[in-house]
Amino acid sequence: MSSSFDKFQKRRVITSYFSVVLSIFLVLFLLGILGLFVINSKRLSDNFKEEIAITVFLKKEANDTVVKAFTSELKTAKFAKSFEYVSKEKAAEQHKKVIGEDFMQFLGVNPLQNSFDIHLKADYVNNVEISKIQTRLRKNPMIADIVYDKQLVTLVNDNVKNISIWILIISIVFALVSVLLINSSLRLSIYANRFIIKTMQMVGATKSFIRKPFLKTSVILGLIGAGLAILVLVGVLIYIETNFPNLGILEDKLAIVAVLLGVLVLSVAITWLSTYFATQRFLNLRTDDLY
User: Fold this and answer.
1) Global pTM?
2) Which class for 158: exposed (0-12), middle (13-18), buried (19 or more C-beta within 10 A)?
3) Is 267 exposed, middle or buried (CB count within 10 Å of its CB: 0-12, 13-18, 19+)?
4) Domain harbouring 70, CATH code
5) Do 40 and 177 reside in the same domain of the chain?
6) CB 3.0-4.6 Å disulfide test: which of 43, 54, 56, 257 passes with 116?
7) Can you say whether the dihedral through the CA atoms of 175, 179, 181, 182 is positive or negative?
8) 124-160: per-residue pLDDT in tens?
């Protein structure tokens, strides 16, 4: 009978520890994902901004010499991240693929112009900077027109600001929720041992002596949960880097290490503090209040 009861107690303890580790793992993993998203949010927004291109159309009189000179100018331009020369023949092929018909059969001539698709650096993707770039480029007498999606640029910049604010708010809320969830899991675990705590206290054990094994156990559980969270976070980073190398998510290794260390430190801090105050509560309760 005693053996069955001991087995039951062991199963209950293992289940309790498992639920604590699982809750710590899930909360720290989600918090780590949010942290990684925050440190990479600028890179992600910059990557999206740099996908927006402005198109510079050349006049029909622009010969190869003009094209080479403009290419050299763009290579040294601070605002240009990348650029591509699109001949009118290549533009015609692109239009043909889009509309599914060869419009030149009807017109007899190619009405398109030679052009450059310029992808700007993220810091220059706003209407003020693009306006300055346009003014500079239009000084070239061989440029016929400059076109870009002004509404899209405005929309992207406004949304980046709004998203940044919401990320900050969500981060704060989620950090508070994570502390409360881990705290609740540990309090429930200690609640199951409240009678043991009170019995040890009644036979003369000091509060620090009673508290020590609970603090040690909770910190170990926190480290296990944090270790699992860090392993999964590293796996997620490797997966993203492998499948989306253009994002360059592993470029800022120092920031990534800081987030992973933050997850580890946070697990120890939260578990230690939660266990300390939970045990303190039961140590201060009267025997009658335990029921």
Assistant:
1) 0.63
2) exposed
3) buried
4) 3.30.70.3040
5) yes
6) 56
7) positive
8) 988 889 899 999 988 889 998 889 888 888 888 777 7
**Structural domain span for residue 72:** 53-148
> At which residue do the structure tokens 């981060």 appear?
171
**Same domain (yes/no): 36, 59:** no
Residue at 187 is within a domain: yes
For residues 197-225, one letter each, b for 16 or more C-beta atoms within 10 angstroms of the residue's C-beta and e for the rest, the string is bbebbeeeeeeeebbeebbebbbebbbbb
> pLDDT value at position 176?
77
Are residues 178 and 286 both part of a single domain?
Answer: yes
In angstroms, the CA 182 to CA 27 distance is 8
Q: Is residue 116 part of a domain?
A: yes
| Model confidence at 231: pLDDT above 90 | yes
Is the pLDDT score of 185 beyond 90?
no
Percent of the chain beyond pLDDT 70? 83
Q: Cα separations (Å) of 226 from 20, 30, 51, 183, 237?
A: 12, 11, 37, 15, 16
Count of structural domains, the chain:
2
Phi then psi for residue 82, to 5 deg, are -155, 165
Same-domain check for residues 109 and 250? no
Mean pLDDT computed over every residue of the chain: 79
From the centroid of its chain, how far is CA 63?
Answer: 47
Confidence band, pLDDT 50/70/90 cuts, at residue 1: very low
My answer on whether 43 and 139 are in the same domain is no
Phi first, then psi, for residue 54 (nearest 5°) are -110, 140
